[in-house]
Amino acid sequence: xxxxxxxxxxxxxxxxxxxxxxxxxxxxxxxxxxxxxxxxxxxxxxxxxxxxxxxxxxxxxxxxxxxxxxxxxxxxxxxxxxxxxxxxxxxxxxxxxxxxxxxxxxxxxxxxxxxxxxxxxxxxxxxxx
Length: 129
Hints:
Layout: E1 2-3, H1 6-20, E2 28-30, H2 34-46, E3 59-65, H3 69-72, E4 81-87, E5 95-99, E6 106-107, H4 113-126
Parallel strand pairs: 1-6, 2-3, 3-4, 4-5
């Protein structure tokens, strides 16, 4: 299990902010749940509105991309910029602050480690591991 820190979170916010500073964005949307922390931080850093749904020319963020299915929900929105903190696969049409090992279980700083261990065990049992 990889324990992510608030310092790493702050770095990801800085990275995304730098990449988006010159863009004209309508706001930032974060996929619930993990993307919400990132979206709030980026809304403040970029001084753009926090959105309750993705809109054209917005920044759309999530904490992790595992399969790409969640991100595919916004792929056809005109002019969006999409970032994830961590991607477990090579980014296709989205951006990632970091590409990580696809089998690595990630614990984000806002998550409870005891619940994460249970989630990891349940996930492993479903996958026969």
